[in-house]
């Protein structure tokens, strides 16, 4: 059986810069996989390449064995990949409810929109309270919830998150990570990009370490947490 | 017509200098339909809107799409080029003489006590209000309308959720042009026109959009009312040739008091 998501020798970049080179990785159905690395390592670019938000220079991307490399971002989203981007990227003047509903774009997710919305509100009661408020007026943590909720509205096969902890207070980060664990237990496969390496490794099953655009380490998260190089470079001990 | 410009600018941040010329094409279309097929402009405005929708869609897909991310001065050059082509094509086909479209309503006047109401103008006004309300409802209530607002609010975020942003831009440009086409057909019976009207119409609608606040539909509508009232008062109390002086003074005063326009949000 093919992996849910598979990248083979992926290169991507901007203009003359190749930000990501020769990245090969796989995400199995049901897993939480973390992609960690320091600032500028190419984590965001990798997620953008998977989503079709930057063009693939070389290599292949497949979802359940079906090639999606080179399809546009609209087709890739329709194939079942939902992206919670760096900086949330909500629609600030539109209401929370409108933001969430805009996540449901495929005929299937649209048909079950009310049901999924109920589940999102169950997970994030704060969003239900603020459904008629403009998304731009939410706090950072609430915006992150709205961005995750918007992605869940698509009923994705794969949920990709780019630095959900960025700019949030530690308590808020803890609650978002607990929510991610709950989302995964409910059956959603997760690919998580984080600079908060400790938290990401604690949450995930497996992880890849990205440095200067290439993968340098991979393995079970528990093993990486104990790995000498990881501890020294990312955990500060 | 300022509403159409607002939609185009609000969604794509592209300043459409061909706006007035598109309106003139709407007027000539109404004129052709009246002269050749005997259709009253108050009935043919829907046809004009549809044709202009197609023109707007085509201009967006063929030309504007290539420059949405380009600097403003390049966009202005391109749109001026489109404006010149449209204006000169009209000149070639219809000649420089002013023409006028007759509508059955044109001869009607109602007397309401001391007031007399020109029915044609009243109908033009009522239909314009109805179209603005319909557009606002479309943007608020329909999925496609919300998609347009989302692409206007955050184009990158729109791509992230899988919205086909170039297609949405084409629809928005088409709707903007359709508003102008309808506006052209509706003003054709109350205003004689010629191809050279395009540029001054563009200037007036920019004035309206800036007064109302860039990107605000309500602003465009209120701005339109303010400018037309100011111009009529100016024409009555000063003299008709000074009416633009009044509307541009209004522009300057409003920009001094509210730099983002009446309903504009300050963009970062
Ligand atoms: N929009 C962009 N244009 C040009 N270069 C970019 C852009 N975004 C990122 N980069 C560059 O690509 C490299 C990888 O960046 P990114 O993928 O954002 O890293 P990370 O998410 O791991 O911090 C960096 O050198 C960064 O400067
Ligand atoms: Mg990043």
Write up what this structure looks like.
The complex is a heterodimer of chains A (237) and B (268). Chain A has 237 residues and is of the alpha/beta class. In chain A, 39% of the residues lie in helices and 26% in strands. Chain A is built from eleven helices and ten strands. Chain A has a six-stranded mixed beta sheet with strand order 6-7-8-3-9-10, with helices on both faces. Chain B has 268 residues and is mostly helical. In chain B, helix 1 (2-12) packs across helix 9, helix 1 packs antiparallel against helix 10 and helix 9 (197-212) runs parallel beside helix 11. The relative contact order of chain B is 0.19. The chains are: A alpha/beta (237), B mainly alpha (268). At the A-B interface, helix 2 and helix 3 of A face helix 6 and helix 7 of B.
Brief summary of the model shown:
By secondary structure, chain A is α/β, with parallel strands linked by helices. Helix content of chain A is 39%, strand content 26%.
């Amino acid at each position: 059986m093919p992996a849910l998501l598979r990248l083979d020798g992926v290169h991507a970049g901007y203009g003359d810069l190749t930000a990501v080179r020769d990245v090969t990785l796989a995400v199995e159905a049901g897993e939480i996989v973390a992609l960690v690395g320091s600032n500028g390592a190419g984590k965001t670019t990798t997620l953008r390449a998977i989503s079709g938000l930057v063009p693939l220079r070389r290599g292949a991307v497949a979802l359940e064995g079906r090639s999606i490399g080179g399809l546009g971002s609209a087709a890739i989203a329709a194939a079942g990949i939902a992206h919670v981007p760096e900086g949330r990227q909500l629609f600030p003047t539109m209401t929370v409810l409108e933001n969430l509903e805009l996540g449901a774009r495929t005929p299937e997710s649209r048909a079950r929109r009310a049901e999924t919305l109920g589940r999102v509100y169950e997970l994030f009661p704060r969003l239900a309270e603020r459904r008629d408020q403009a998304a731009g007026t939410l706090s950072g943590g609430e915006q992150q919830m709205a961005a995750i909720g918007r992605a869940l509205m698509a009923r994705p096969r794969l949920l990709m998150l780019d630095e959900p902890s960025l700019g949030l207070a530690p308590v808020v980060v803890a609650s978002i990570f607990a929510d991610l664990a709950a989302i995964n237990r409910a059956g959603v496969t997760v690919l998580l990009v984080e600079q908060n390496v400790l938290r990401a490794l604690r949450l995930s099953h497996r992880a890849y370490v990205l440095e200067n655009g290439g993968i340098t380490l991979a393995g079970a998260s528990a093993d990486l947490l104990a790995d000498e190089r990881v501890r020294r470079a990312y955990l500060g001990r | 017509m300022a509403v159409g410009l607002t939609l185009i600018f609000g969604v794509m941040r592209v300043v459409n200098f061909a706006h007035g010329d598109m309106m003139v094409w709407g007027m000539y279309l109404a004129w052709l339909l009246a002269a050749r097929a005997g259709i009253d402009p108050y009935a043919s405005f829907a046809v004009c809107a549809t044709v202009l929708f197609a023109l707007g869609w085509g201009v967006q897909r063929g030309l504007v799409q290539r420059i949405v991310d380009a600097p403003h001065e390049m966009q202005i050059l391109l749109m001026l080029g489109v404006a010149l082509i449209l204006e000169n094509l009209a000149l070639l086909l219809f000649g420089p003489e002013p023409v006028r479209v007759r509508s059955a309503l044109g001869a009607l006047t109602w007397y309401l006590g001391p007031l007399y109401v020109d029915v044609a103008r009243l109908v033009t006004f009522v239909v314009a209000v109805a179209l603005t309300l319909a557009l606002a409802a479309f943007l608020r209530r329909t999925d496609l309308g919300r998609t347009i607002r989302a692409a206007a609010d955050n184009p990158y975020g729109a791509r992230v959720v899988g919205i086909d942003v170039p297609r949405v831009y084409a629809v928005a440009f088409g709707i903007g042009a359709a508003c102008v086409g309808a506006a052209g057909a509706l003003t054709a019976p109350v205003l004689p026109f010629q191809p050279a009207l395009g540029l001054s119409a563009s200037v007036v609608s920019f004035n309206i959009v800036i007064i109302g606040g860039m990107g605000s539909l309500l602003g465009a509508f209120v701005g339109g009312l303010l400018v037309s009232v100011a111009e009529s008062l100016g024409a009555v109390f000063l003299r008709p040739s000074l009416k633009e002086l009044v509307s541009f003074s209004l522009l300057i005063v409003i920009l001094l008091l509210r730099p983002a326009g009446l309903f504009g949000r300050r963009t970062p």
